[in-house]
Here is the input.
Amino acid sequence: MIATLLAALPILLILVLMLGFRWNSARAGIAGWALGLLIAALVFGADVPILAWAHLRALFLALVVLFIIWGALLFYRVTEAAGAVKAMSTLLSHISPHRAFNVLLLAWGFASFLQSVGGYGVPVAVVAPLLVGTGFPPLAAFVMASLGHTWAISFGSLGASFKTLQGVTNASSPELALWSVLLLGVLCFIMGAASLWVAGGKTALRQGSAPMLLMAVAMSGGQWLAVRAEQYEVAAMLGVLAGLLVGVLWAILQKRPTFSAGSGTLLRQALLPYMILLALIFVMRVDVVKTGLELVPPITEQEHPTLVTANGWSVPDVKENSISPLSHTGALLFYASLCTWLYGRYRGEISREQAMPILRKVARSGVTPTISILAMMALATTMEYAGMIDLLARQLASAAGGLFPLVSPFIGALGAFITGSNTNANALFGTLQRDTALALKVTVPLILAAQNVGGAIGSTVAPAKVALGCSTVGLEAQESEAMRVLLRYELLALCLMAGLTFVLSRW
Here is the structure.
């Protein structure tokens, strides 16, 4: 019992410092990492070689994430300079019948689309500034963008989280996918309603309820159809596209907008940077292009020998991971930034003198999330290599007993909160969830789906992602407040998913 409490202490410390003492994620992350390092060495028997390998892995994982983050920050600043944010605000005012619809279109629809094709932190980093540009306060913009794309994470990033979970557990893909899409369909409705509530309470919910329900049916239905066809990589993408199409058609029928002579320029300014990004993402999926870019040697994570702590914990084998510098998601963001910059210079919409201010803004806003991610990755790998994460999950499962379906989503959320990634959480806890479900004779695919959905919810409140989202809308000094507000909504969603999982397990 004492060991379990000590294993949880670094996570509790981070939460207390951020939520109670209003520390930012960088300071709280460093404090949690230092405490975790001490406990791992003194209590869990992690010696110097184990801790060294843990930190080497942390550096590699942080590099994967930081590549995306710095690319996203640059992309945002360049699009801002190109006038995309201002143009998007003006364009939405033409077609949108009310501000609530802007939230559905951007925070719920566009953010989810970016999640379906991109990944880590990009939806919030790109969409939150757009919401600020349309008149929403920075805190509300961050929360809405974070909530809106939650349902698309499990099948997002071209199915990365789902494929990881299926791979580590050897579960039946069709069965696991159908249980997942059922839970995610409900989560889609919840997040649409939550985004509207943040935007304007009862008034926004009343104004946006009709398009929200129509879009939610199209989103969840589109994702379900893609899963039925076993198209897991594009399930979230097809669902989002269906929802956006329905939403735009509804808005046009409601308002029947008229466009002035300059609307074509507005449309180009507003959409071109994002169209460039999406085009690059799809082009990179072409085998010939991908093969050509991968001629540059990848950065490969070094494999470590067999490691065992003094307490007898054997460090799990780590599959060889690598980063292709030219085809990574971060590289695509840099390419999109460069194309947007060059086109803006050609059109005379960006001046050469804006280059240094853009770079200074990127550097200033990237410091806190960089420190936060390095600290949180170091803590995550330290706890993993010392056996602390496994102990916490197993104690939660053991304490739950027959109520395990209620706990399952929380285990997924715990892993994602620590690592900042639903994919990593599935790799950490997938087999634990499977084995516990088998022992308790609970439907295994349902429990694994709950793990996947819980991980999606938990990843949005991970300190590293909060730091990134806040940095793009000027909330660096209000990270703790942003996490506190976001946590309320995501915890409610997590409880609803836990309750639904329990009911379905009994049924």
